[in-house]
Amino acid sequence: MEGRKGAQLTPAPVAAAAVVKAVFGSEGLIREIILRLEFPTCLVRAAAVCKRWLRHASDPDFLRRFRERCPPRLLGFYFQDCPPAAAIRARLRGPGARHPHPPRWRQHRGRPIHRQGLPRRPFLVRNLNPAAGQHAVFSPLHPTRGVALLPPPPRPTFNRFFFYKADGGEDGVMALELEARRGQVQVVTLQYGVWAFRTRAAIQLPYQLSATGDILPPIHGKMYIQNVFGYILVLDLADASFSAIHLPDRVRTTNFRLSCGEDSGLSLIRAEGFLLTVWNYRTDNNGLQAWVLVADEICVHEASNSMEDVFVVGANDDAKFVLLGLARSGALVSMHLRSRIEKLHHERFNDLNLLFPFPFMMTWPPVFPALREENDQEE
Amino acid sequence: MEVDKGKGEAEETRKVAEADRDTVTLKSSDGKLFEVSKEAAARLSTVLAGMIAGGSIDDNGTDLKQIGSEALENVVDYCNKHANSIPSAALISSSISFNTAPFKEPEEWERKFVDRLSHDALFDLVEAANFLGMERLLDVTCHKISEMMKGKSPDQIREVFNIKNDYTKEELEEIRQELAWAFYDD
């Protein structure tokens, strides 16, 4: 017994085929094992081991159980360190596959172009040739798929790009020009390879805009612009009109971020001290559109432990994840709002207020390619 | 080591056994006898609990033909260790009612328990735990095997577990393309 123990310190790298076969051959056991992989990335890698594992991994019942055990995770996030600047850095975190080592960061140059709905894949727009205004869209997660070139927009000041759902339900690309001082917004959409103006004249707003405000990608034909104090501007793309939503009474600072999802609607996440409050803009009990309090006094433990204030610096598009900055240490914390699970990231930032990170989720469920079943009858 | 208590002494203890004795004797496929606390066996294994409740326990050693002596020794060892660690386990599960934890991680001693096993012993133990309906032991052993897969590439997983690749080159390439986010670090 004692002798055997010593030998086990360095287990044989290759297990005896028969024993492994018995366990992996059992449908129930292999499921129990890959169910405990914890990371969607690890599950996908396991599915690429052999066809039988792929069949288990792609079974809807199995995926549901996997999800129940493992809360959704961030795949990474982009951040821009200074939105109005011409060249914007965006970094992308790898999915942490080399467990348990911390994931590496990769740097991609480009401006995030947000895309609503599923699958939530990040895209970047890169200005290939500033003189010609030549932009390209690419996805850092699909480096092999290449880039899509966009024709130069009508003016170089059309420098914010978004995906939107066109009438036929297809992905369209639009570019936005925001003249902060004059309070003007102009929108062009890409149609048959040509930029077309949505409206003849720019939309004139009665407010001066702040140049650094966040603009959410269009959803159900509306865009939310968070850069007028005390209001959120709603741009209706269909008739090129705008309206304003008052912020909730309790929101008195700019320490909040908006999030808007196809199903979840508009949400607002605010921080005060180390506490978070979440509102959702929806029809209240009186049948009016209003801010409904969703969660209050969510404690950010990473901040309360070190007696720091938090900044809300980003949220994903269904307000499931928020990214928070710690005021003193400059650390970045992400939190899954429902489970309140926090994760402290290793990066430090100088000015979190100028940071516009955009968290993105793992694509879930993973969509595996269909196997050709006729090759597959050996078992 | 105290594990040995299950072996030779079994014959003696059996003679003085009364109807209300607090251990049960288990017999491996190769005829070796092991003794384990009745309470622990009933609590940790649904199959043994059923046998004890149904009176189908044999005082001369209940035959477990599907389980070899090495695996059964580990099962008994686990039951004994588990019985000894009850205070801390009970404390943890009753005093904290967070439902934020997605599932219960193996405890320190459980980790050590599976870490010392060879690949073969580990896989044998998974089967034994499955056969005996030992939910917690199955959880801990499956967790250990999944740990061995984490962070590895499909090639490395195949190598470690000696699994045949039945994909064509094109099929694998398709998976890597479609789910590139999972292979980002490669």
Automatic annotation (TrEMBL), chain A:
<dbReference type="InterPro" id="IPR036047">
    <property type="entry name" value="F-box-like_dom_sf"/>
</dbReference>
<feature type="domain" description="F-box">
    <location>
        <begin position="29"/>
        <end position="64"/>
    </location>
</feature>
<dbReference type="InterPro" id="IPR001810">
    <property type="entry name" value="F-box_dom"/>
</dbReference>
<feature type="domain" description="F-box protein AT5G49610-like beta-propeller">
    <location>
        <begin position="124"/>
        <end position="368"/>
    </location>
</feature>
<dbReference type="Pfam" id="PF23635">
    <property type="entry name" value="Beta-prop_AT5G49610-like"/>
</dbReference>
<dbReference type="InterPro" id="IPR056594">
    <property type="entry name" value="AT5G49610-like_b-prop"/>
</dbReference>
<protein>
    <recommendedName>
        <fullName>F-box domain-containing protein</fullName>
    </recommendedName>
</protein>
<dbReference type="Pfam" id="PF00646">
    <property type="entry name" value="F-box"/>
</dbReference>
From TrEMBL, chain B:
<comment type="subunit">
    <text>Part of a SCF (SKP1-cullin-F-box) protein ligase complex.</text>
</comment>
<comment type="pathway">
    <text>Protein modification; protein ubiquitination.</text>
</comment>
<dbReference type="GO" id="GO:0016567">
    <property type="term" value="P:protein ubiquitination"/>
</dbReference>
<keyword id="KW-0833">Ubl conjugation pathway</keyword>
<feature type="region of interest" description="Disordered">
    <location>
        <begin position="1"/>
        <end position="21"/>
    </location>
</feature>
<dbReference type="Pfam" id="PF01466">
    <property type="entry name" value="Skp1"/>
</dbReference>
<dbReference type="GO" id="GO:0006511">
    <property type="term" value="P:ubiquitin-dependent protein catabolic process"/>
</dbReference>
<feature type="domain" description="SKP1 component dimerisation">
    <location>
        <begin position="136"/>
        <end position="182"/>
    </location>
</feature>
<dbReference type="InterPro" id="IPR016897">
    <property type="entry name" value="SKP1"/>
</dbReference>
<comment type="similarity">
    <text>Belongs to the SKP1 family.</text>
</comment>
<protein>
    <recommendedName>
        <fullName>SKP1-like protein</fullName>
    </recommendedName>
</protein>
<dbReference type="GO" id="GO:0009867">
    <property type="term" value="P:jasmonic acid mediated signaling pathway"/>
</dbReference>
<feature type="domain" description="SKP1 component POZ">
    <location>
        <begin position="23"/>
        <end position="84"/>
    </location>
</feature>
<dbReference type="InterPro" id="IPR016073">
    <property type="entry name" value="Skp1_comp_POZ"/>
</dbReference>
<dbReference type="Pfam" id="PF03931">
    <property type="entry name" value="Skp1_POZ"/>
</dbReference>
<dbReference type="InterPro" id="IPR001232">
    <property type="entry name" value="SKP1-like"/>
</dbReference>
<dbReference type="InterPro" id="IPR011333">
    <property type="entry name" value="SKP1/BTB/POZ_sf"/>
</dbReference>
<dbReference type="InterPro" id="IPR016072">
    <property type="entry name" value="Skp1_comp_dimer"/>
</dbReference>
<comment type="function">
    <text>Involved in ubiquitination and subsequent proteasomal degradation of target proteins. Together with CUL1, RBX1 and a F-box protein, it forms a SCF E3 ubiquitin ligase complex. The functional specificity of this complex depends on the type of F-box protein. In the SCF complex, it serves as an adapter that links the F-box protein to CUL1.</text>
</comment>
<dbReference type="InterPro" id="IPR036296">
    <property type="entry name" value="SKP1-like_dim_sf"/>
</dbReference>
